[in-house]
Amino acid sequence: MITVRAPATSANLGSGFDVFGVALDRPADIIRVERAERTTIEITGVGSQYIPTDPEKNTVGAVVDALDAPARIEIDKGVRPASGLGSSAASAAGAAVALNELYDRGLSRTDLVPIAAEGEAVVSGTAHADNVAPSILGGFTIATADGVESVDTEIPLVACLPEIAVSTRDARRVVPETASMEDLVETVGNAATLSVGMCQADPDLVGRGMADPLVTPARAELITGYDAVREAALDAGATGVTVSGAGPSMLAVCRGPDRRDVATAMLDAFAAHDVEARAYQTQISDGATIL
């Protein structure tokens, strides 16, 4: 049996829609795989009752098919489904790493990214790599049609998950189909600033570069209390705040000493809007790990 810990992720980071992603050191999924004649999936943990165990409907089923690696698969969910923290990606990424090891396929971590992305297509309809790439590779990743680049870096973060339901389909539906030249130039500049900040492990540059005039304002409308939570986090010392993935989680970039205050401020602001929430004081981390 092979056991893999696959981390949660945050995609988009504001200015990097469908391209940027980071691995978080918590929460995470634990995936165990064992050779079998046919694939079976058992799921426990947070939100497990909402996840299909049919291999044709689960993200890991597509990974099994791509690697030709039937297995008995156990998934202990630490990443809540529909959280904006890459729940389906963590399962797909962990399965890809585990099955590659179990069957000695010899593929590199980079080779496994498009395979895990095919698992994502089962859920979202499109093989996006912005979540699976950081879950497999770790660090800060840039996923494009030409491949994936990754950078190891250390940035303190707070991921705040409210008890709000935001479907990926709804989050996709509100994304603007057109953009003005002014907004496009601003977004490109912010994405470049964020990238430099990641390379320099500079929370101030990363926070400033997360600003996004296009996608984030539209998705923020789906999150009760978003503006108040954002302002509370900034007042507590966050250098930038945005929607994590499709939401409803919110991601705040911090300097290390401010992380606890930022987490508390975000929780209090959600509570003021009668929304229960959980805050993860986390950081950019390594990718999937064989235990």
UniProtKB/TrEMBL annotation:
Presence of the UniProt keyword Signal in the record: no
Annotated GHMP kinase N-terminal domain ranges read 60-139
Q: What class of enzyme is it?
A: transferase
Xref: InterPro entries:
GHMP_kinase_C_dom (IPR013750), GHMP_kinase_C_sf (IPR036554), GHMP_kinase_N_dom (IPR006204), Homoserine_kinase (IPR000870), Ribosomal_Su5_D2-typ_SF (IPR020568), Ribsml_uS5_D2-typ_fold_subgr (IPR014721)
* GO BP field: threonine biosynthetic process
Q: Which residues does ATP bind?
A: R80, P81, A82, S83, G84, L85, G86, S87, S88, A89, A90
Which residue intervals define the domain GHMP kinase C-terminal in the entry? 198-266
| A single Gene Ontology CC term | cytoplasm
Q: In which pathway does it act?
A: Amino-acid biosynthesis; L-threonine biosynthesis; L-threonine from L-aspartate: step 4/5
> What keywords would UniProt list here?
Amino-acid biosynthesis, ATP-binding, Cytoplasm, Kinase, Nucleotide-binding, Threonine biosynthesis, Transferase
Reaction it catalyzes: L-homoserine + ATP = O-phospho-L-homoserine + ADP + H(+)
User: EC number(s) for this protein?
Assistant: 2.7.1.39
Q: Which residues form a coiled coil?
A: none
Q: Which Pfam families match?
A: GHMP_kinases_C, GHMP_kinases_N
List the SUPFAM superfamilies: GHMP Kinase, C-terminal domain (SSF55060), Ribosomal protein S5 domain 2-like (SSF54211)
Gene3D superfamilies, per this entry? 3.30.230.10, GHMP kinase, C-terminal domain
Compartments where located: Cytoplasm
* Molecular function GO labels: ATP binding; homoserine kinase activity
Q: What does this protein do?
A: Catalyzes the ATP-dependent phosphorylation of L-homoserine to L-homoserine phosphate.
> What is stated as this protein's family in its record?
Belongs to the GHMP kinase family. Homoserine kinase subfamily.
Matching NCBIfam families: PRK01212.1-4, thrB
What is the protein name stated in its UniProt record?
Homoserine kinase
Query: In which organism is this protein found?
Result: Halonotius terrestris
Gene name per UniProt = thrB
